[in-house]
Specification:
Number of strands of chain B: 11
Order of helices and strands of chain A: EEEEEEEEEEE
Helix content of chain B: under 10%
Oligomer: heterodimer
Number of strands of chain A: 11
Distance between the termini of chain B: 38 Å
Structural class of chain B: mainly beta
Strand content of chain A: over 45%
Order of helices and strands of chain B: EEEEEEEEEEE
Largest interface: A-B, 25 and 29 residues
Radius of gyration of chain B: 13 Å
Radius of gyration of chain A: 13 Å
């Protein structure tokens, strides 16, 4: 059974700093991995999707990496801004399985 | 291009009642998935519909049921509501076979069961 873990549960950093969010998963036979952003009480916004054959994806100040062999992904946020404050969730899709398995998220606060 | 929409935004029901939540998929998408997100937790997969057929189900009891219509919109029905059903219900749409079936989520419906 796939399990996804995100540590830490919460993180506060000063504005302008670069930061890394971590995601680990127990079964390396994944089809892809998605990173999402969720603002309080709102839906999920897809940030990046990494296919199992890829090592990383970039979008603006965001860079996500994937290491299937170790069961890890990281989301790198460059030059953080107060608007980046939100909960960040990672989710994996396994081969032959239609569902996304989510972690519990990291609540990020950027301090002005 | 219209994104995923859900209705209603908020809903309050009492224990034992039935509820129907609605979702309109993103234009061009043919697959809809439903998730339940309890406070402080990650979303949990309820089920998925593809071409009007259930295409995968999570660990939820039969009182959670769904439909997908020819226009790919979808409904989630929950019978005999329990207090633990209070959660944010999220709908996600995707296009089967495109970009790894990347899922795009709606804003959710907040259900409170009293």
């Amino acid at each position: 059974k796939q399990e996804v873990t995100q540590i830490p549960a919460a993180l506060s950093v000063p504005e302008g700093e670069n930061l890394v969010l971590n995601c680990s998963f127990t079964d390396s036979a994944i089809y892809n991995l998605q990173w999402f952003r969720q603002d309080p009480g709102k839906g999920l916004t897809s940030l990046l999707l990494i296919q199992s054959s890829q090592r990383e994806q970039t979008s603006g100040r965001l860079n996500a990496s994937l290491d299937k062999s170790s069961g890890r992904s990281t989301l790198y946020i460059a030059a953080s801004q107060p608007g980046d404050s939100a909960t960040y969730l990672c989710a994996v899709k396994d081969f032959g399985n239609e569902k996304l398995t989510f972690g519990t998220g990291t609540r990020l606060t950027i301090i002005p | 291009e219209t994104g995923v929409t859900q209705s209603p935004t908020h809903l309050i029901k009492t224990r034992g009642q039935q509820v129907t939540l609605r979702c309109s998929s993103q234009s061009g998408h043919n697959t809809v998935s439903w998730y339940q997100q309890a406070l402080g937790q990650g979303p949990q997969f309820i089920f998925q519909y593809y071409r009007e057929e259930e295409n995968g189900r999570g660990n939820f009891p039969p009182r959670f049921s769904g439909l997908q219509f020819p226009n790919y919109s979808s409904e989630l029905n929950v019978n005999a509501l329990e207090l633990d059903d209070s959660a944010l219900y999220l709908c996600a749409s995707s296009l089967s076979g495109y970009r790894g079936n990347e899922q795009f989520f709606g804003p959710g419906t907040r259900l409170t069961v009293l």
